[in-house]
Amino acid sequence: METAEAAGRALIGGEWQAEPDGRTFTVFDPATGAAIAEVADGGAELTGRAVDAAAAALPGWRALAAHERAGLMRRAADELTARAASIGATMTAEQGKPLAEATAEVLSGAEHLLWAAEETRRLYGQTVPGATADNRIWLLPEPVGVVAGITPWNFPVSMITRKLGPALAAGCTVVLKPAELTPLSAIAVAEAFTAAGLPPGVFNLVPTARPALFAETVMADRRVRKVSFTGSTEVGRELIRRSAEDVKRLSVELGGHAPVLVFPDADPVAAAAAVARSKFLNAGQACTSPNRIFVHRDVAADFTAALARHAEAIEPGVDMGPLIDAAALAKVERHVEDALARGAKAVTGGRRIDGPGTFFPPTVLSGVTDDMLVCREETFGPVAPVIEFDAVDEVVARANATAYGLTAYVWTADLTRTLRVAEELEFGMVTVNGGPLAPPQAPFGGIKNSGYGREGGGLGVADYLDYKYLSVGLG
Ligand code: NAD
User: Fold this and answer.
1) Any idea where the Aldehyde dehydrogenase domain is (predicted)?
2) Is the CB of 254 within 6 Å of ligand 1?
């Protein structure tokens, strides 16, 4: 919940500021289509001020003792935890996910911050054997500097804390631009950090409906040394191009097209329960969402029936929210219509729900083939396409036949198969038999067109560090 002071504003150098020319943009509730807030539409000047504030705060923040930085981050995590229900309600209003999911996301964001806070104490360097008897060599970890973060709307809080945690732990200061569809959750996160006593300028927030202008401004500013982006591959590519001019460091967490491989030795009912959880979470609007569900013919009937039972038990509007907007709904409809026209069958769901809001029911498609749109593009909706397979030897190649490489899910009781398949899958993350995907200690991230860089774990913090090589002659 926003205070009156923070309402719809940018946070710059510890002050809540409006856009200098008074420009705002409107935030909508996707469940009703109603306008719910006006938010400052930050332009080049406001973004520049945010970079000024981050640059001014950098020397003090990086110079703090590790336990002092960790203490402030822990306090921010406590504030997020205490406000989880109210921030969750804000998220539900602007993003549409059910309150329980939204509140859990805030609590998980706090966990990520806590983990990163602890990592502050382990920013070790290295001592390397010298080149001669009187030479000493050290590697000294140093923060990259001012970081610009750009986050998507699908996880409006956790995508922010996944960047803030490691950046702040490393000693960087941050200018963050949230998605224009979900700025209110971001403002609520910034309020929690302010209440925790984070020094002014360490975390600056610039809401804007002009993302390209924000990107242009931070890319052109030499004080910004790294850009960390989560969003579509298309925008990621553009940022990679633009980063070349000033040779900025980048982390890009992009789209996914996750395969699921259910082998004949797996328990199809347990697999279906887990696939339903990850597929229908956030109405399927997740980069890790299972998109191509390859199920061996021997277990396909049991798997599909169980998946349909789970899908039918979900009540849209209660257990699952709407899609984020009309364009998202239209894309899901187009994918399902294409699949049905090419011979797939809707075991359950398949047609949008009439009425206000952008609701699409949990849908299970059977008889899906690799040429259908659902198998070629990221659907970003609650559609589970089941593809039966016979040839165990060929299914990994089919799973790899995508430009993306974020997540793959495997179900098997065979250890040899687990290891062979995991090695052959071209994805940054492989989870077997329901292993959790995004705990704070794990390095989340992709390969190929899903991007590069890792968020979480020690590798996540390393992404915000430079290692200075120091060579000293004693002679
Ligand atoms: P998007 O790329 O349209 O937007 C993401 C962010 O980029 C938003 O903040 C947006 O304002 C900003 N943006 C848009 N145009 C920009 C431009 N020209 N320059 C700079 N910034 C710009 O993506 P989306 O539709 O909001 O999010 C969904 C996508 O994000 C999906 O492809 C999904 O797979 C991906 N995603 C990836 C991960 C991951 O960790 N790999 C996590 C969540 C979402």
Assistant:
1) 19-469
2) yes
Read off the pLDDT of each residue in 181-209 and give the average, rounded to a whole number: 98
Listed in sequence order, the residues at least 6 apart from 405 whose beta carbon sits closer than 8 Å to its beta carbon are 426, 427, 428, 446, 447, 448, 449, 450
The answer, yes or no, to whether residue 447 has pLDDT greater than 80, is: yes
Q: Which of 87, 78, 74 is nearest to 189 (CA)?
A: 87
- What domain count does the chain have? 2
Asked if the structure places residue 444 within a domain, the reply is: no
* 227 and 328 belong to one structural domain: no
Pair 32, 171 in one domain: yes
**Ligand 1: does its nearest atom lie under 6 Å from the Cβ of 235?**
yes
283 within ligand 1 shell (Cβ under 6 A)? no
258 CB less than 6 Å from ligand 1? Answer: no
pTM for this predicted structure: 0.97
Quote the ligand 1 centre to 327 CA distance (angstroms). Answer: 15
| DSSP strand pairing (345-348 vs 146-150) | unpaired
pLDDT tens per residue, range 147-165: 999 999 999 999 999 999 9
Active-site residues, by number, are 253, 287
Structural domain contains residue 61: yes
pLDDT in tens, 108-133: 999 999 999 999 999 999 999 999 99
Task: Give CA separation, 20 vs 43, 126, 221, 368, 414, in Å.
Answer: 9, 47, 20, 53, 62
Q: Of all atoms in ligand 1, which is nearest to the CA of residue 153?
A: 26
In ligand 1, the atom with minimum distance to the C-alpha of 450 is 41
Is position 475 within any domain?
Answer: no
CA 328–ligand 1 middle distance (angstroms): 13
* pLDDT tops 60 at residue 1: no
Whether residues 370 and 241 fall in one domain: no
Q: Is 180 in the pocket of ligand 1 (CB under 6 A)?
A: yes
Per-residue model confidence (pLDDT) at position 4: 79
Per-residue pLDDT, averaged over 31-40, amounts to 97
Q: Which ranges constitute the DSSP H helices of 19-123?
A: 44-63, 66-82, 84-95, 99-119
156 shares its domain with 304: no
Q: What digits encode the pLDDT tens for the residues 369-404?
A: 999 999 999 999 999 999 999 999 999 999 999 999
